[in-house]
Amino acid sequence: MRRAWRVAHVAATVAIPWMLAVYYWTSADRYTIEGSGRVAAHFHMAAAIAAAVLFVDAVVLRVIGRSAAATVPFAIVWAGALAYSLNGIRTFSGKEFKDYCGNVELCIPDLDLFVGAVPFALAMSCAAVCSIVVDRKRRSERLTVEAIHNG
């Protein structure tokens, strides 16, 4: 049961940022300022929910024991993503959005998504793969040391 949970956590760590990037890139509504603001608000809402769930999951898995992609750095990244997304929701929803884009000639509400969605997904994927490699290496070293002491 715990192994399946750890595998699901690693899969979610890799898949969710890519799913959000695909959502952004395939959103037909992002070609107008208002539509782009709606896409940004929806993106940040989904990202905040995902970051909160992955943050709690990483912390709980870390407290229980070692696991790939459930380390303190991952928890910090998810906490930062949650804070950033909560700010994005506030910025691109309702009156705040009108204040943000209402008084300027050039407004690109989804610029942070355009510039950041795919690089964040790529960085999280690489970090998860590296975490898996390090976790496997530590496990094999621990098993080797135990075999030497027992043998």
UniProtKB/TrEMBL annotation:
It comes from Gordonia sputi NBRC 100414. Keywords: Membrane, Transmembrane, Transmembrane helix. This is Integral membrane protein. The chain crosses the membrane at residues 7-25, 45-65, 72-93, 113-134.
